[in-house]
Design brief:
Elements: H1 18-21, H2 25-36, H3 43-57, H4 60-72, H5 77-82, H6 94-107, H7 118-127, H8 130-153
Helix pairs in contact: 2-8, 3-4, 3-6, 3-8, 6-7
Length: 171
């Protein structure tokens, strides 16, 4: 066993660099990035959805990452800050609102009934044609793919990918 957990205030991740441990991860991540970036859904919407996912699951790493991506893209600070309270915040389009509602529905257990009821799907379909809706679903899946790495591995938020993981040691 080489696992050496980091403390919650540590400057190193718990897990060694997963790309070094599982080299095929790069190809999987690249394929997901390419699929989601097909242009059918605005990148801003994808980033808003992925920021909301990070907030829902309580991942500082994902929240900082996607906040930074939105800032780099020139997104208004008011909209970035309002993602956590999007339901009563001004400034989001109908398409962005339904995308945020979808990610919440997928990542939040339903107290009763389906997580994504027919009514929510129908509203999403009003804003997104089939390819765009499938892409939006993949964007939720893309961030979902990285949630376990973010929560279990605890990469360092706000630092470059090369610096966020502790180095893998030779076995």
């Amino acid at each position: 066993m080489n696992a050496s957990p980091a403390t919650s205030d540590s400057l190193v991740s718990r897990l060694p660099n997963p790309q070094q441990l599982v080299p095929d991860l790069g190809a999987v991540a690249g394929a997901l990035f390419k699929a989601v970036g097909n242009g059918s859904v605005p990148q801003t919407t994808v980033s808003l959805v992925q920021l909301r996912a990070g907030q829902i699951v309580g991942s500082t790493y994902l929240t900082v990452l996607h906040t930074g991506n939105l800032r780099k893209a020139g997104e208004a600070e008011e909209r970035i800050t309002a993602v956590a309270t999007w339901r009563d915040a001004p400034g989001f389009t109908g398409a962005e609102r339904v995308a945020l509602e979808l990610v919440e529905a997928v990542l939040t257990p339903a107290s009763h009934g389906e997580r994504v009821p027919d009514e929510l799907y129908a509203r999403a379909a009003e804003h997104y044609e089939d390819k765009a809706l499938a892409t939006l679903i993949m964007a939720i899946g893309q961030v979902g793919f990285f949630i376990p790495l973010a929560l279990i591995g605890k990469p360092r938020p706000g630092v470059s990918p090369e610096q966020q993981w502790r180095p893998a040691t030779a076995e």
